Every structure is written in C-alpha cells, then in structure tokens.
Hints:
Layout: H1 9-30, H2 32-38, H3 49-71, H4 74-97, H5 102-123
Amino acid sequence: xxxxxxxxxxxxxxxxxxxxxxxxxxxxxxxxxxxxxxxxxxxxxxxxxxxxxxxxxxxxxxxxxxxxxxxxxxxxxxxxxxxxxxxxxxxxxxxxxxxxxxxxxxxxxxxxxxxxxxxxxxxxxxx
Length: 127
C-alpha cells in the first residue's frame, strides 16, 4: 500500500485536518504532562490515571487521523468532521456553563471548528 496524497484542493484540506488530528494525538499520547499544562489542567498527585486517559484519547486521535489518511474516503472524512463538530459543540457548552479560561477556550473552539469544517465540507461535496 502506498501513501496517497490527494490532488483535489478540497481533499487536500480534509487530508490536512486528518494529519493535524494525528499530530495532536501523538503529542497527547507521548506528552500528556505538557498537554495538561497547555490546557491549564492539574493532575492530582499520586494519581496517574489522568495520564492514562490522555494517552488513550491521544491514541484514539492518532488512529482516527491515520485511518482517514490511509483510506482517504469521503465517508471517513465525514466521520472526522462530525466528531470534531460535536467536540466543538461541547466546547460551546463549556463556554456557556463553566468558568474556565475564555481566551484558551475560544482559541480551541476556533481550532476545533476548523478541523471539523475542512473534512466535513469535502465529504459533503462543497469543496
């Protein structure tokens, strides 16, 4: 199996979204401490379960991103876009109900919305 790089512009955008997903997942999987610091989260001393959860979520993101890259099918890009769309909706709920860092949450909302829009628009045939 050879690595396929898309020729269409819309598919390239969806491909880049999948690649960014895999890179974020790798960072989350192999550097959960830095990720938690960036997100302003604290791990309770003596409890390593939080790191296990971060590594597990990172592994999921790596797997999802790599499958989207390797299979390069519109339905998989739709699933990737829908997943990030629901994550962005969760971020909006958090902005409305939680008392967290507004700037960081808005920044991450924009990133999640972009990562949702690119594969979703390609999968639906808009770009």
